[in-house]
Amino acid sequence: MKTYRYIIALIAGAAVLSCTKEMKELPAPQDSAELVTIRATLPENAPLMKAGPHSGFSWRWSAGDKLTVMGEGGAQEVFTIKSGFSSNFAEFEGKAVPGEKFTILFPDEKALTTDWSKQTQAGNGSIDHLKYEACLTDVDDYMSFTFSPEWAAEHGGSLKHTGVLKLTVTLPADVKKVTKVTLSAPTALFYGGNGDTMTDKIALDLSDCNIGDDHLLTAWMTTSWNEAVVPVDGTLSLSVGTSDSPIAKTVTFTKEGKVLGGKINTFVTDAAGWTYSSRYASGSGTEADPWIITTPRHMSFMAEDMADGETRYFKLGADIDMAEITDWVPLNAAGSFEKKIDFNGDGHTISNFSCSASKYSSFFGVLYGKCYDVKFVNATINATTAGSGILGGYCGTTGKPGEATRVSVQGTINCEANNHGGLFGNVNEATITACSADVVITAKGQCIGGLFGVDPGLVTVRDCWSAGSISTTASIAGGICGDLKTANSSIYNCYSTASVTTQFIFGGIVGRAVAGQKSNKNNCTNQDPRNHIEKCIAWNDFLKSDYVPDTSEHYGSGAVVGQTAFKNYLTGCIRKSDLSYTLCAANVAAGGYDLFDQEDADPDHPMVFGTGNYAFGYNGKAAAAGKTISQVAQDLGWSSEVWDFSGNAPKLK
């Protein structure tokens, strides 16, 4: 256990032993039924001052103050302050109290049993909640007295008055709001009130207590007028409740510490040694009780709590700003990718996520499991190796399927190698449903897509859209997918408005779909991948080739699919009527690559293709002039249960 030096210190001025104002001799007590005037004096330098309407701590008489005097035989009376009082001297009026010995209480007899466990501080450093209580016990005079230990001793009694504990606590940098602070001991050494009952802890609730850039919490507690002692080598546990997870630290005292009545006691601790009682806001990581994530710190524990061969369940309980996490390591990007996850965004947003990992730069790495109902906003991915996207380098891999449902991403992807996309770089045994990507992708490699780059294994995509821009200095790029190369991989009811710029082989929806073969005429005619690209809408800002190094004819492109095997299912796809479509100069000169309407095609009814040597693109049919994407989608029969068609472009519900 680390040993710290802590200070429980006295901050107090010296007490003035007597009033400087000359007093007249008072008459003897009158009949108990008669009103009498008593005189109460405060020391000029009170050892502890009352928190009240005056600035700072000010145990000074105030309008409305009352005193309770208890005599013999159970007699007691309440005395009310009279007008004309000063800060240190006041007269009080009440009924006479019989007896030889008296107890004088401020403010009343309830001070004897006050419970200090229900204190609440409103705001960091506020003292408005502090209360002062005092008791002159067994004194021989109540007609004229001074609240000081010296006066009490001269008159055969004693003085007790409440103290204050000031905690100055340096918190971890990620703590932004505090809800409670508790100081506890192994045994009962504190007093929870002014009575004789002892307790092992004292606590303070906090409201609206925000922590600033200095990471300091200043908390004030009223403490009992009974003295508490922490022995040498004794320990105290300091627990701080936060809007995140509670944090705690144990401190060891190298010398005796005291919490004294009538004093301002201080407790100071630095930022070292804090532990978190929970990694998450709640939960146990099971399907019935997922870990609840409400802060970036919770995010940082996810990788540690995932395990090979097991499924871990996470759920967002709040929007998360990940700007402070600049070294994110993908959750499942190494080994045999056995870490399965169920990630439920519950409709929340993850903002300012960034990753520059050396492999599969992304949030998940390899998504083995499910991700759903979440938005990523202002994400940034930097990748120097193949396979990246905001969600994953892979969605699924052989024997480990992945699913993304109702996920939207927005951000920037910078990549130097092949296979990158807005959501995923690669997809294999994957299902992507009701997702969107509004991304700016700048690449130097092949197979770049608005949603994903390439499918080394089977993928099915339904009801998705993309926007933004896709640019690569290589080739094979599409608004939804760069390259479909696996038999039966399919895309249904998707649209893209993303601009696409590449050397050649580009499409508004898919760059290439020829079963991974070279795009020569023989392969395109004979390959039978049976990919489905159905009821998709190419509404791209533009499709453009920037290849200009020579005058040779090069691989072509298409409005919907850049290059396709003829035995694919190409059904009901529509392109923007005035689509901006720019080929390389050599292909323009060669002819046969212009956009033209094509009928639906399937393996038994091969696509009609252009006359150029590489004119294997699928253009679908042009939309009627003036039509919106929403109108075209409704004409194609897209579901109104999935899509909102109220705007020009459909939005996912």
Q: How would you sum up this structure, described in words?
A:
The chain has 653 residues and is mainly beta. Helices cover 5% and strands 39% of the residues. The two termini are 54 Å apart.
Short recap of the structure:
The chain has 653 residues and is mostly beta strands.
Highlighted features:
disordered N terminus; Immunoglobulin-like; 5 helices; eight-stranded mixed beta sheet; 4 domains; 56 strands; elongated; single chain; Pectate Lyase C-like
Structural class: mainly beta
Major sheet characteristics: 21 strands, parallel
CATH architecture of the largest domain: 3 Solenoid
Given as residue ranges, the uncertain stretches (5+ residues, pLDDT < 50) are: 1-32, 49-56
Radius of gyration: 39 Å
How would you state the average pLDDT, rounded? 89
Number of domains: 4
Report the sheet-strand fraction. 35-45%
**How many strand units?**
56
Oligomer: single chain
Number of helices: 5
CATH topology name of the largest domain, in short, is Pectate Lyase C-like
Helix content class: under 10%
Kindly report how far apart the N and C termini lie.
54 Å
The CATH class of the largest domain is Mainly Beta
What order do the helices and strands come in, and which of them pair?
Layout: E1 10-11, E2 35-41, E3 66-70, E4 76-81, E5 89-95, E6 102-106, E7 120-122, E8 134-139, E9 144-146, H1 149-154, E10 158-161, E11 163-170, E12 177-184, E13 190-191, E14 198-199, E15 201-210, E16 216-223, E17 228-230, E18 235-242, E19 247-252, E20 257-259, E21 264-269, E22 275-276, E23 291-293, H2 296-305, E24 311-316, E25 320-321, E26 340-351, E27 354-355, E28 366-367, E29 369-383, E30 392-395, E31 402-415, E32 420-421, E33 424-427, E34 430-433, E35 436-443, E36 448-449, E37 452-454, E38 459-462, E39 465-472, E40 477-478, E41 481-484, E42 490-492, E43 495-496, E44 499-502, E45 506-507, E46 510-513, H3 521-526, E47 532-534, E48 537-538, E49 543-545, E50 561-564, E51 569-571, E52 574-575, E53 581-582, H4 585-590, E54 621-622, H5 629-635, E55 643-644, E56 651-652
Parallel strand pairs: 2-9, 7-15, 11-21, 23-24, 24-26, 25-26, 26-29, 27-29, 28-30, 29-31, 30-33, 31-34, 31-35, 32-36, 33-37, 34-38, 35-39, 36-40, 37-41, 38-42, 39-43, 39-44, 40-45, 41-46, 42-47, 43-48, 44-49, 46-50, 47-51, 48-52, 49-53, 52-54
Antiparallel strand pairs: 1-21, 2-5, 3-4, 3-6, 4-5, 6-8, 8-10, 11-16, 12-15, 12-18, 13-14, 17-20, 18-19, 19-22, 55-56
